[in-house]
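Internal QA ticket QA-208
Title: Verify multi-chain structure generation after dependency bump
Assignee: T.L.

Test input:
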Amino acid sequence: MTAALTLEGVSIQFGGIRALEDVSCQVPAGQLRGIIGPNGSGKTTLLNVISRIYPVTSGAIRLFGDDITRWPNHAVARHGVMRTYQRVALVNQLTVLENVMLGLHATRRQSLLGIAFCTPGYRRFERESVDRARGTLEFVGIEHLADRRGDELSGGQMRLVEIARAVVSRPRVLLLDEPAAGLSLVRIDEIADLIRRINAELGVTVVLVEHVLNLVMSLCERISVLVSGQLLVESGSPSEVQEDPRVREAYLGQARAHGPGQGQGEGEAADARA
Amino acid sequence: MIMARPERVLRYAAVAGVAVLAVAPWMVSLYKVHVLNILIINIILATSLNLVMGYAGQFAKANVAFMGLGAYTMGLLVTRADWSFWIAWPAGALLAAAVGTLVALPALRLRGLYLAIITISFVLIVHWSFLHARFLTGGASGFSVPHPNYFGLPIPNIQATYYLSLLTLLGAMWIVRNLVASGFGRSLLCLAEQELVAPALGINVFTTKIAVFALSGLLAGLAGGLHAVTLQFIDPQNFWLLQLVVQLCMVALGGVASLLGSVLGASIMILLIEVLRAFKGLWEFAIGAILLLTIVFFPRGIAGLVEHLFPSLRERRHRP
Ligand SMILES: Nc1ncnc2c1ncn2[C@@H]1O[C@H](COP(=O)(O)OP(=O)(O)OP(=O)(O)O)[C@@H](O)[C@H]1O
Ligand SMILES: [Mg+2]
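Actual output:
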């Protein structure tokens, strides 16, 4: 079986900081993969590298066998990689429905001439887009928010809209960056259920970066542990990861130091979470 | 009493506005027809600027240069090369659109103040060229352009040009409204608010920026040609920084990323300039004051205020 995602010796450097160092791993198609690690360990950077926001310094990234290492980033999205952000990134001038429709751009586009002159083909296209976006809002359970604007939502609602925007185009791979951050326990349960359904019902391969360890442990079949830009565990079951003394050490070390593991990039990591 | 739904009120107002504009040439003096024509042309210009600045959020200010290129190209082709206005006018607009795509190139790398500086420099260079290519443009004294050939249309030329502007405005508004209520319009707003997120949604930032600059250039070029035949004269002063500030004022006062805003902003500014014309030198002051007050009190302009009071009037970015 082909892997959905393959990283081969991926490294990236920001000035002097080696944010990722020789990261190699595989995510099989259909898997729900968790990625955990202390603050500043490079989890977000890993997602940015996969969605081609950052170019890698060295190494290769494959998506269902295609080498996407040098692709422009919109091409990666069009090839079926969608994502959410640690800091929610909705367009506030658009309604929830329109934000979700924005997510359809990856797979469904119309010619500008068709749009400009409002051809019948384009009308049908736009109607279908609205229907699909509404269907996704129902799937996520927020159809009642359709006409609200991005800035009229609570933090938890924003995260759901962002997930809806990411799955409306039925991506092949979904990258989630801390979808449970700042949510109450009830909401965390809801989001866990949603992620499970996206994986099982829509058949989307999910890469879940999350700090709420309970969520990762209960949801994910396999977990990778990233510490200081290196994969400590490439792929372990929840119980293996929980019992691994090196993982405990990495997290405990962080607790003792009250900061990111190895004291790296404390400032930025804190900013990113603010 | 039954309150009328605001959407419906707005629709009736729009229809009434168009009807008034359509019959106006038979009701008011020639001078007022001229003022209305200038108003119509400025609505097109404000829409053109709003596309790039409001919708796409690009701090580009090259609009008067596109307008000038449209006007000069049309005027020179008609007076020097004997082209028909009906070919020279779209040719000028296409040239402005092509130059618009060139201006989009720095916008791919630069943002904010830097993009503003680059595009304002572009306005200065274009203006300088109009001024100094005397053998072609007549320099500061400009040159006159004839009325377009209306093929024996049984109405005076001034009225005919007025209707040409009105038709252009209606066509432009229809097309722009279609575009902003589509995936293209949504991508523009995404560029404005979340430029880094856009490519991760599959939006090709390069082609989207090129397209919006080309469209903006096309509209400004068309407006420039109309402006020239309305004044029957072209000189560099019409494409100078002051006009740029007036257009920025229209967008800021009316409201960014809003078609209603472009219409209101342009109308109010042109009428205001007309009213204040009697008091020499006052209108520059008034413009400065309006820009300042709007930015302080209504950062989203009149349209923003209207949408705040009547949320159902928010511009739709999808159909139906
Ligand atoms: N654009 C950038 N420029 C410079 N350094 C960066 C950049 N992005 C990330 N880094 C650095 O890379 C390291 C990893 O950061 P990253 O945000 O990936 O961590 P993380 O695991 O997502 O942390 P958190 O749990 O706080 O979200 C940090 O030291 C950070 O300062
Ligand atoms: Mg992170």
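Spot checks passed. Residues 3-89+172-271 of chain A form a domain with the Rossmann fold fold (CATH 3.40.50.300).
Status: verified.
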